[in-house]
Amino acid sequence: MAGVAAYLLWGLFPLYWPLLEPAAPVEILAHRVTWSLVFLGIVLAGSVGFRWIAALGRRRALLLLLASGLITVNWGTFIYGVNSGHVVETSLGYFINPLVTVGLAVGVLHERLRRNQRLAVAIAAVAVVVLTVDYGRPPWIALTLALSFGSYGLIKKRAGVDGTQSLAVETAFLIIPAVAYLMWLSGDGRGTFTTEGAGHVALLLGAGITTAVPLMLFGAAAIRVPLATLGLLQYIAPILQFLIGVLVYHESMPLTRLAGFALVWVALAVFTVDAVRALRQGTGAAPMPPVPEVGATAPVLAGTSTSR
Fold first, then answer.
1. 291 confidence band (pLDDT: 50, 70, 90)
2. What is the pLDDT of residue 189?
3. CA of 231: how far to CAs of 6, 166, 253, 290, in Å?
4. Can you tell me whether residue 192 is helix, strand or coil?
5. Given a cut of 70, is residue 140 above it in pLDDT?
6. Distance (Å, rounded) from C-alpha 155 to C-alpha 66?
7. CA separation (Å) from 67 to 46, 101, 118, 160, 195?
8. How many CA atoms are closer than 13 Å to the CA of 166, on its beta-carbon side?
9. What is d(CA 102, CA 108) in angstroms, rounded to the nearest whole number?
């Protein structure tokens, strides 16, 4: 239930960020960083405390610094995509993210793909070509989301820090530029925090809660639910995002674009069946990495374990 709730919340994110307008994407991002750190600080103060910081070490700190840069790109791109009318394209990013993660496993961890995995990646590559023709440009929002979050997951896996604690460190690295930017906006008269009413203030403050709550739900599920189950649950979020883009925001879906998405779904079907089959045969191959929208415990690369 915690896993389902986490992915449902991530899937509903495209309904939340447009409510924060007229704040621009960068301002929303700065508020998200700021209030996430505040909320996570309260959660940590009431639970495990902060003694773990002393044991973090230089290597982990540097890895989380790199992760903070990647998650900034991911958050900013997602907010921009949703608020600029590209919700369907953002969903594509999280559909293809498992395949990008497999690519990272091959390129960085030097893992070898099975035949069906190679087939899935090839079909996904064709899908990207079809979507590039349809859009008249590469689907850069989707590709940026997938690449940034796939890399983010790899870094977080190497860091091996609890999800809530990890996100607290990442946002702490970002807090100074975030607050400085908000102060500059306010001084320049372009900030919206104090100019759009109490409701707007509440929504901006809520950005921290909406970031942290799914993270904590996912963290609770990740240590209790089989990886195969999490691998299937992950598709709840992009499916909801896709439906919101088409049915709520009425984004266009010409046949060529639908064909591109259909190819992605075929690739994921091939990939999922192969992964589940490999797991049942006891090869130890993980199905798909859990793919939260952003900020959750690191996705698990193919062939690795969820244990810390």
1. very low
2. 87
3. 13, 22, 27, 5
4. coil
5. yes
6. 8
7. 25, 15, 28, 12, 33
8. 27
9. 10
pLDDT of 141 strictly over 70: yes
Q: What is the pLDDT of residue 292?
A: 44
Q: Judge whether 27 and 179 are in contact, CB under 8 Å.
A: no
**What is d(CA 50, CA 54) in angstroms, rounded to the nearest whole number?**
8
**C-beta neighbour count of 19 within 10 angstroms:** 13
Distance CA 90, CA 148 (A): 13
How do residues 61-102 score in pLDDT, each as one tens digit?
999 999 999 999 999 999 999 999 999 999 999 998 888 877
Alpha-carbon distances of 270 from 99, 118, 123, 202, rounded to whole Å: 11, 10, 9, 44
Q: Whole-number mean pLDDT of the chain?
A: 85
Question: What is the rounded (10 degree) CA torsion for 158, 162, 168, 172?
Answer: -30
- Candidate ranges 60-64, 109-113, 151-155; pick with highest mean pLDDT: 60-64
Strands (E) located in the chain = none
C-beta contacts of 197-203 below 8 A and 24+ residues apart: 200/20, 200/23, 203/16, 203/19, 203/20
Contact 38, 208 (CB under 8 A): yes
> What is the pLDDT at residue 227?
65
**DSSP letter at 236?**
H
- Encoding tokens for residue 164? 């809530």
DSSP symbols for 31-87: HHHHHHHHHHHHHHHTTT-SGGGGGSHHHHHHHHHHHHHHHHHHHHHHHHHHHTT-H
